[in-house]
Amino acid sequence: MLRLILIRLASEAALGLFVDTTVQLTQFAEHSWVPAVEDLRLGDVPLRHTVELVHIDLPIDQAEPLLERGVLPGCRICPVRMSPGGDPIVSVDGSLLAIRRETADCLCVRLLAQLQDVG
Amino acid sequence: MDDCHAKTDDGLNAPSSRTAVQDLPARTPLVALIGPPNSGKSTLFNRLTGLRQKVANYPGVTVEKHVGRARLPDEREVDIVDLPGVHGFSARTLDEKITRDVLEGRMDGLRSPDALILIVDSTRLESQLMLVEPVLELKLPTLLVLNMADELEVRGGKVDDEALVRRLGVQVARTTARTGLGVEAVTSFLSDVTVRESGGQEISLRNIPLGVPLPMMDAFAARRRHVGEVVEEAGFVPPGPSAVSERLDSLFLHRVWGPLIFLAVVLVVFQSIFTWAVPLMDGVEFLIAGSGEWLAVTLPESWFRSLLIDGVWAGVGSVLVFLPQILVLFLFLGVLEDSGYMARAAIIADRMMYRVGLQGRAFLPLLSGYACAVPAILAARTVDDERDRLATIFVTPFMTCSARLPVYVLLIAAFIPQEPLLGRFLGQRAAVLLGLYGLGIVAAVGTAYLLKRTLLRAKPTSFLMELPPYRIPALRSIGLRLLDRSRIFLRRAGRIIFTVAIVLWVLTQFPRTEGGAPHIDDSALGRIGQVIEPAIAPLGFDWRIGVGLVTSLAAREVIIGTLGTIYGVEDATDDSIVLQDVLRRDLTTASAIALMVFFAFALQCMSTVAVMHRETAGWKWPILQFSYMLVLAYGGAYVAVRVFGG
Fold first, then answer.
1. Could you say which DSSP state residue B311 is in?
2. Considering just the CA atoms, what is the radius of gyration of chain A in Å?
3. B209: contact with A, CB 8 A cutoff
4. Is the predicted ipTM greater than 0.90, yes or no?
5. Do A30 and A39 touch, CB atoms closer than 8 A?
6. Residues in A touching B217 (Cβ below 8 Å)
7. DSSP string computed for B518-564
8. Which residues of B128-150 are buried (b: 16+ CB within 10 A; e: fewer)?
9. pLDDT, tens digit, for every residue of B363-405?
10. How many other CB atoms are found less than 10 A from the CB of residue A67?
11. Quick one: which of B87, B157, B179, B236 could link to B152 by a disulfide (CB 3.0–4.6 Å)?
């Protein structure tokens, strides 16, 4: 499982590098081995991997319910389960939130290096 | 109980201007109960006030206002207002707007609160405390209630109450509202509350600028940082994951088992509506019929007796009959909701509903629609997006409510032969009944699809559902809610049926012939039937069915009684053989099917129209809904009569 993600990350990183080298380089400097992928979305994160929310790519009225529940840039999110319909159920601050995968695809996240070994 | 309601009335609803309130001697202090959804707010409210509560709507909107009176050990009393569960105070949703208005004392008919109780689920302290900062800005005496303390301890969580007191400058109490543990600390806070002398100082929640992306994001980020500091200082150790909840979730949200269990739950709810509630309904029917007969014998023969028995008794009775069914339905829904399963069911349903243009929360009202559209439309208040809510209540009357059932049963028994269709498993009669239920679903889905692409078109909203931990429901809370529901149902539906019953009765009594009531053919009602006959002739209906259709506008099942009156059949019920015989004389099988299709689609229910009017705050939606369903019903019946008549 993990290997698959890494392959995916690597390929996406390669694409990213090709498009915008400067951004990618600064990101590399901050996180030694995991290439921060600008377009890694919550919907792509496999179960039980904690990620950090970087950016919410939603109009403000749709983002507000998320913000009120503490889903803010910088917070940690961990998908814990998939609903039978394929929508992620995530854990944030000890609460379980079910979100549509369309919404999850609008949440830009990055993997946390130190938590890579979990799962 | 009426007595205590009256008392609550003068305290709360009388003068809306503040000066007038202050003139009252010895005012009862008002405490507002705030908290996020699923924090146990209503359970605590019920603990504190018991039966001494009053439910009404906030002026002009459909959010329920729960106000109750708590009696303190020293015999003093405090009024408590249970605010809707919110996560914030931006006026994005109606609930949030109401909460803000009440807290700032801008709500008509409710004075500004003298103190606040902020209740949070202590097992999820971090996300729940997002409310604490704006609440503290109100600068009112505040009690922070850490609810579900038992769960926090069992799962190994910790928090230092004293540190919270120091850091936030509020009182802190730990409770387990479900069992009542620790509630005395809340009561002792209440006994210290005094009426606040509002010296003109304005209280206001910090407004978060709407539509300005960056500042709002910053405001929330700052709030979250503050919460982070608070919980750290209070040494909050989040409880371990609830093993029970996880295990149940892996079953209820399992890819295969999840949907199967979901279906099973839906079936059990159905079963409860259609079989287990029946003895109770028969009991109510028996009581109404019995008391009607008793009245008939007791009262002297007069127009008043006729009005009372044929008009009021029969009309109101036809609604009362559904009460057991509604109570059984809400008992089940209450258990499902309080146990935490309903949130899971909504997630499972969301994918299906989303395709149609609705959302997961619409599942509950639509399911309730199989009993009765009136409580179902009320239940749609849980649908947070306004367009989704409108779409939901627009299609709810397509769900085959139990008032259609007796009509279907009568017509099927009269016209559809009991012959096997698919071996021994499915007879023709059952197939027709199933087909009619299916027709309702198809119409609902099609209409929702249409609505969301025309009148209610909107960008897809972000469906967000919090999954509370599984909990054992508190019977006391559910019982109080059932009481609430029955009151609302009886008041809303009863008033309409009462009026319509009287109007219909008058129409059967005039014009008077030889000092008595005319024969039904010659009555005003009969003439109305004859007037509309040309319009319904293409469907194969004569004026008698026409009269039935007119009277069934009040409530669908009324058509049976009306047909009984017209054909002069005593004791007309859905299993009346005589009525079946005379119907076969006047209707073809194709027309009978057309009539059932008409009933499947048409909005023949004044109570629903009235509730729609109330819930959409205007006549636009009910009129649109009524006309749309009438057109669909006529068209459907026409197609049916052509298809089956050919």
1. I
2. 14
3. no
4. no
5. no
6. 60, 63, 67, 72-73
7. PPTTTSHHHHHHHHHHHHHGGGT--HHHHHHHHHTTTBTTHHHHHHH
8. bbbbbbbbbebebbbbbbbbbbb
9. 888 988 887 888 788 888 878 778 888 999 999 999 988 788 8
10. 25
11. B157
Chain center to CA of B214: 38
Least confident range from B43-57, B159-173, B386-400, B622-636: namely B43-57
Predicted confidence (pLDDT) per residue in A50-103, tens digit: 999 998 888 877 888 888 888 988 899 999 999 998 999 999 988 899 999 889
CB-based contacts of B238-243 (< 8 A; 24+ apart in sequence): B238/A94, B238/B123, B238/B125, B238/B126, B238/B157, B239/A94, B239/B123, B239/B151, B239/B152, B239/B154, B239/B155, B239/B156, B239/B157, B240/B155, B240/B156, B240/B157, B241/B155, B242/B123, B242/B151, B242/B155, B242/B469, B242/B470
End-to-end CA distance of chain A: 9
Closest residue in chain A to residue B349, using alpha carbons only: A85
Is B227–A84 a contact, with Cβ atoms under 8 angstroms apart?
A: no
Beta carbons within 10 angstroms of residue B456's beta carbon: 18
CA gyration radius, chain B: 28
Nearest-Cα residue of chain A relative to residue B353: A85
Structure tokens at B295: 């009245």
Burial class of residue B548 (count of CB atoms within 10 Å of its CB; 0-12, 13-18, 19+): buried
Of B106-110, B363-367, B633-637, the poorest mean pLDDT is in B106-110
| Alpha carbon distance B8, A90 (integer Å) | 44
Q: According to the model, what pLDDT value does residue B592 have?
A: 94
Entry pTM: 0.76
CB contact under 8 A, B88 and A85: no
What is the Cα A106 distance to its own chain's centre? Answer: 10
Alpha helices, DSSP H only, in B94-235? 94-103, 125-128, 132-136, 149-154, 161-168, 183-192, 213-233
Contacts of A47 in chain B (CB under 8 A): none
Nearest to B462 among A65, A75, A83 (CB): A65
A10-19, B451-460, B556-565: which has the minimum mean pLDDT? A10-19
The size of the A-B interface in CB pairs under 8 A is 122
Of B127, B461, B463, the CB nearest to A69: B127
Contact (Cβ atoms closer than 8 angstroms) between residue A90 and residue B467: no
Q: Note the residue count of chain A.
A: 119
CB atoms within 10 A of CB B222: 11
Q: Write down the residue that tokens 């049963």 correspond to.
A: B409
Report helix, strand or coil for B346: helix
Task: List phi, psi (to 5°) of A110.
Answer: -135, 150
Structure tokens at B53: 């509560």
Strands B464-467 and B77-82: unpaired
DSSP assignment of B435-502, as one string? HHHHHHHHHHHHHHHHHHHTTT--PPP--EEEEPPP-PPPHHHHHHHHHHHHHHHHHHHHHHHHHHHH
Q: Rounded to a whole number, what is the distance in Å from the CA of A41 to chain B's nearest CA? A: 16
- The reported pLDDT for the residue numbered B4 is 40
Phi, psi for residue B354 in degrees, rounded to 5: -65, -40
**Pairing status of strand B77-82 against strand B30-34:** parallel
- In sequence order, the β-bridge partners of residue B117 are B33, B143
Put the strands of the sheet holding A95-99 in their side by side order.
A107-111, A51-56, A76-82, A88-92, A95-99, B464-467
d(CA B636, CA B438): 14
A102: chain B residues, CB-CB within 8 Å:
460, 462
Phi, psi of B30 (to 5 degrees): -115, 130
Return d(Cα B543, Cα B523) in angstroms, integer: 13
For residues A22-50, one letter each, b for 16 or more C-beta atoms within 10 angstroms of the residue's C-beta and e for the rest, the string is eebeebeeeeeebbbbbebbbbbbeeebb
